[in-house]
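Summary for the funding panel

The consortium committed to producing paired sequence-structure records for every protein in the target list. Below we show the first two records in order, beginning with the earlier of the two.
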Amino acid sequence: SECEDENTIAQALEESAKLAVAQHRSLKESMVDATGCLKLFSMPPREDDAEPDHLKTSQDSLLRGIQACDNVQTYLRLCAGTYERAVGQVQLYNFVQKLMAGRRIVASYIAPLVVRMDPDLCALVLDNALANAVKHA
């Protein structure tokens, strides 16, 4: 019925708004991290600096922000029903490194495997899981 359609649309808009707020917050956090690292990079190094590669950390934060934007696009295509799976061979090590970029995560071992998966969909799911784990841990 028309009323049910309007409720479905209203619910979808509400969910989209929540997603937009969450993704905006994630992107803003990445930009803030990158800005802080660039400021530290531009300052003279301190002797007790435990992480002297602030430029690399800044780059990783920016890459995480780009990944957040890619994840939003994947999510929106899923919601719209236009997402097409793209399963292919992926270097697991490179995939995990990209997922960990800009985060303070240590992987004890990443198997040097080639796996078949949809990297966009897996990145969306795993990025969300990591963000929730960090937020609620």
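The next record, for a separate protein in the list, is shown here:
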Amino acid sequence: PVHGYIKSWVFKNHQIPDNLQQAMTTSSRDTKSEQVAPDPSSWPIPYAYFAIGEGTGCSNDHFQNMHLVFNLAFCGTVAGNRFFKDCPALSAKFNVSNDSVQTCNAYIASEPEALSEAYWKIRGIYVYQ
């Protein structure tokens, strides 16, 4: 990366910064003059920040031919930690030592048919360089 870092953000629909919302809305317009450029400096603190390059312990040559990957794990350290909050009735029924991830896994193990069809709403993925 030219700038010496990779940053990533995650926003809920109602929390998308105005500048980003405008950039997404205008991205398909025909001419550059009609498009709003994203300005990350006007957004909140990134979800992740990775320093890259000289003096960081992570050289630039690590980042070539990259791919975006969706990890749709239902019960992981990110999604599973929300299980108590998002699924209080199921959490109470399958509670394992008040551990949200273990409780989520116990639910999946006990009722796998509940996830025979699962859907995610993803409004978009935007990569800016």
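Regarding this second record: The two ends are 9 Å apart (CA to CA). The chain is about 25% helix and 5% strand.
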